[in-house]
Amino acid sequence: MDAKFTELVEQLNGLDFKGMYGSDFLHTWDKTTDELKALYIVADALRELRENNVSSKIFDSGLAVSLFRDNSTRTRFSFSKAANLLGLELQDLDEKKSQIAHGETVRETATMISFMADVIGIRDDMYIGKGDAYMAEVSESVQQAYEDGVLDHRPTLISLQSDSDHPTQSSADMLYLINELVVLRTSRARRLLSPGPIRLLRQAAVLPAVADQPAAPLWHGRHPGSPRGLRPHARGRRARQGLCRRVRHHL
After folding, report:
1. Which helix (H) or strand (E) holds 120?
2. Are 11 and 41 contacting, i.e. CB atoms less than 8 angstroms apart?
3. For the chain, first and last CA: distance in Å?
4. Who is most buried in 14, 183, 197, 221, counting CB within 10 A?
5. Rounded to two decimals, what is the model's pTM?
6. Residue 222 pLDDT exceeds 50
7. Cβ within 8 Å of residue 183, ≥6 positions away
8. So what's the pLDDT on residue 246?
9. Taking Cα atoms as reference points, which of 228, 168, 167 lies closest to residue 197?
10. Please, what's the b/e burial string for 15-31 (b: 16 or more CB within 10 A of its CB; e: otherwise)?
């Protein structure tokens, strides 16, 4: 096995991320520092396998169900490719072709699409307060169906963007900063970046953490830990792009 891959796997030994198994990923700030570290390490390990033409399929069968209530290109194809990388078959739920328009409840829909599914990805970001509420209801419905014995296992629910957070995009952006912008790991970076981004990077494990506490949201959402003045989506994107430009300028 490649030495870099082995090193990445060994880095997981000192982290506590057992709480991620069987749980959902709806908000970046729900995860602890160790869990975010583990997420980035596993992503790097999967990339290493892919670049060395080693199969990373851990499923022989199963579905990855996607539901996009808003248009998407990058997230839609990223989710599809991730499912393929792990050995799952993608099944996209088109609500216009379902029984939802005929009065089917969220609980009925969530339970039905969960059979033989290992992961459900949802994008619902059109209206403030609606996307998070819908995903929470889907999660509760799936959990209840599992506890009642209707489902033989519980699929993991992943937010592909809600009205308050875009955890997959935030995580991808942060991993880019970790891997590509090496200057962030140097003391010089502390002089180049303002306190707000430094605080976020420290909490996301790029720079030494001051305490082992749940990380603040990475760029999106209104949350006590996010920099003052940042708001979802537009301002989050501008802040992220501005940070990247500022760091690249000093590389």
Report:
1. strand 117-123
2. yes
3. 33
4. 221
5. 0.72
6. no
7. 189, 192, 247, 250, 251
8. 53
9. 228
10. bebeebeeebbbbbbbb
